[in-house]
Amino acid sequence: xxSKQSVTVLGxxxxxxxxxxxxxxxxxxxxVWNRTAAKTEPHVKAGSTxxxxxxAAVTAGDIVLVILLDHAAVHEHLEPVAxxxxxxxxxxxxxxxPNEARATAAWAAEHGITYLDGAILAVPExxxxxxxxxxxxxxxxxxxxxxxxxxxxGTARFExxxxxxxxxxxxxxxxxxxxxxxxxxxxxxxxRTVGVPAADTAVDVTNWLSVILESLPHFGAIIDEGAxxxxxxxxxxxxxxxxxxxxxxxREQGVGADLLEPAKALLDELAATGRGSGDWPRIIELLTxx
Length: 290
Known about the structure:
The chain is globular. It has helices at 14-25, 41-46, 54-60, 71-78, 98-110, 140-150, 165-192, 198-212, 216-225, 236-252, 261-272, 283-289; strands spanning 7-10, 30-33, 49-50, 63-66, 89-92, 114-121, 133-138, 155-158. The longest helix is centred in the middle third of the chain and has 28 residues, at 165-192. It is of the alpha/beta class. Strand 1, helix 1 and strand 2 form a beta-alpha-beta unit.
């Protein structure tokens, strides 16, 4: 493959759109597909090619990047085109749990598909910068073939042959974001299940939180002003869903979710009392009351 591979992007949400834009900027020919076809129009105007079907989309690219809603959506759209994917490199960047990643890798192997799993530790605005850290795991050959395109998206780190390790590391680091120091203990416990020393996880957590900590003054201003509604960022309902995924990932590794469940319970209480659409830092109100 040349250094400027043709890339198909399945899914044009905020992250998929940012990735497509970055690929165009770095000279890659891009074909896009989205369930809602209207979302392809801005990308076509900017130089991408739109495909009417998933089959047509995957046929057009050397590399197929999958950035869909969830694990179920990945299988809904990939299983019917398994034959068309045999000569492609499939990189799944959909947020999934470690076991879901392993299940997709097993499905891909059964169909002779070259498959790589990825986990994006970044917000869409960071794509293309070195601060955008993206973990990959699974087929090392797939990683090598796709690397010219993947390196244009941010810092690409291949974590090993276990296809679930990228997702696991992503979930572990996100746990630290929500629960800070307790989150670090959760991350260390999760990573030790695959032989990663706690000291190594501490380095990863420190690097990640150094970026997140810059947003603390913003959260402080929201809390001081009581300006929770409408949510300017993640609302309570979105954050409840995110914590539910982290709890599932922990249990899949045989690690308790005791450090995560209290925060989820507080968010549930906010939602149950009609405050689900407000900014999630409102959780401090419940801490103050208690």
